Amino acid sequence: MAQLLRCKSCGYVIEEGKLGDVCPACGVPRKMFEPWTDPVSPKRRRLLDLDLHPIVVHFPVAFTASVLVVAVFVLAFPAVLAVVAQSVLYVFAAVLPVTVIAGLASGLYDGKLRFRRVTTPLLKRKIRLAAALLAFSLAAAVITFVVP
Hints:
This protein is mainly alpha-helical. Helices cover 61% and strands 7% of the residues. It has helices at residues 42-48, 52-57, 59-76, 82-115, 121-146, and strands at 4-7, 13-15, 33-36. It has a three-stranded antiparallel β-sheet with strand order 2-1-3, with no helix packed on it. A hairpin with a 5-residue loop joins strand 1 and strand 2. Helix 3 packs antiparallel against helix 4. The radius of gyration is 20 Å and the shape is elongated. It starts with a strand and ends with a helix. The relative contact order is 0.13.
């Protein structure tokens, strides 16, 4: 098993070989890390490493991709469940941009509370991803409501 390090400032845990010059979560220098032993059993760690929490928490945002798939399905096969698919599509297309905006806003708020700034390396990546998801969900909504 790889040597784990923990940030003294924020508690972020990372493998020694993956750590750069700064903490990816809060941005403090590498010297702020200390050796750390995982108190979780290997079996439980494997379950945690599946990252089920982000999937469950961000499940509504994942439907952004589904909107585009349903839209393509309706355009390609208009006679097959068109009414049902279109109804689902309209609901998802209308709601998803709002959920993405809410997720982005709550993430910025959470980052500000935890790290006192939102310019840490990890949060910058998350902000870029959220912006891409927002653009994608808005494009899907436009396509849904503009294309007959």
